[in-house]
User: What shape does this take?
Amino acid sequence: MKKLWIWILVGVLAAALIAGAIALDLGGGRKASSRPYEHNINYFYSDEESTTRFVADAEVLTDKLIGKVDSFLSCDGTYALVRSGTALYGVDKSGVRNLYSAGVDLALLSLDGKKAVFTTATEVHILDLASGGMEDIKPDGIKGISSIVVSPDGNTVGYTVKTGSGQDSYVFENGASRLLRENACIAAAADSAAFWYFADPADGSLWYASGKREVKLASSFTGMLEFSRDLKEVLFDSGGETLVSRAGGRAKPIAEGVSLFMAGVCCSSVQGGAAVVSEVKDTDTLLGRLYYSYRSSSEGARTVYDIYYVNARGGEKLIAKNAYKFYEGEGGRLGVLMADGKLYDMKTGDPKEASLVASGAADFCTAGDGTYYFISSAGVLSFYGGKSGVMPMQLAEGVVSCGMTPAKTCVFIVRSGENGALMTVRNDLVPELAVNNAAGFETMGGAVFCFTRDYKNDYGVRVFDVYTSADGSAWSLAVKGAEQTGNR
Assistant: This one.
């Protein structure tokens, strides 16, 4: 699998403890295999035009929508479902297409990106995005629809209807619906509904069901669920802890008394409704990877993060405390960590060793090849060659932030007055001016965006001009006066 490096910005610099790097247990079977999120469709609302513009990676689409976007769904960044007003649109590099004119409430995109499932009042619609063919589910005598899900293979749709007495869940396949259970709000359904998950609307409990077998996983949960691709693994929070269950087995906390968040980004499908939101991730397992927790520092002015490795058995190992920033390498292992002003290479290939790259670091970025750009607390940007043997080399002063483009070009901002200058540096290690009057930048999918001309509109809302580039060299104006940005 292509090597994946995930950027995680997790707070402000705080004291850290490298804990357990020597004894880190990476055993327990298979490692996580995930489809990486390598592309992005982004949207920007132009305050000057009162329109929403779209950018597919670095390409600005000519199609635009009047008004703002209020719902945006994408599984892998190559196609997106967008709701504007109550109309549903599809967006990809070829443009924007109207899928349904009005009245859309809930919507989801199947994990393979081939089907859109959405609701209008008391109906469910299943749209084949390639052929344009649509199936309509029209339940009788209901008051609304509260949840929709789709199986991993895209052939089975589950939905929950509101009745006069409660909520009942059904499954639709091969042109027909059948009742799964009364008094249940569906959260996920396997292929042909061989097993499924639901929340009890009466008490908020979470359940797993297979045939006539029902297993209570938790008496209460937050309403947010994360699933592996085949739905056999589920993560959720209950009582301030993150629990994992496999195939309906007893839910066990990963770390006692700790709520954890999965590090990194992979393709996923968001399903469910207002009561239960399920994120089905395109990964064979939710385990064998990094997680983190966060809390306020002892001074209360900072948010600090602890990093855990969760092996394939669900066992956790705390490997760093009070971290600021880190990269996740292939196989869900910790690659690079910055904490307490120190930058560590965690040796992704051999995590039993952690080597100090630099002290006094305030920010860093890396292409994941053993080379690093880092900013000192004094604002000096330096390059460290790592495997190439190049010793730290100072490149620029007055630097406030840095990042890596998809093309592995380092971009950084040199502060000058209210804003600054966006610079780039490549293999020749010669900094070059890219964009003036830069207020900030962000790398998203296959592009990097620079925000300039930072000012407030008549309503006191900050707006920017947005420039985009694929590699940090050629920049083009994407949107003037952007008030709202978004991706995924």
Notes: The first strand starts at residue 6 and ends at 9. Confidence is low (pLDDT under 50) at residues 1-31. The domain at 6-281 is CATH 2.140.10.30 (Methanol Dehydrogenase; Chain A). Residues 265 and 289 are 12 Å apart (CA to CA).
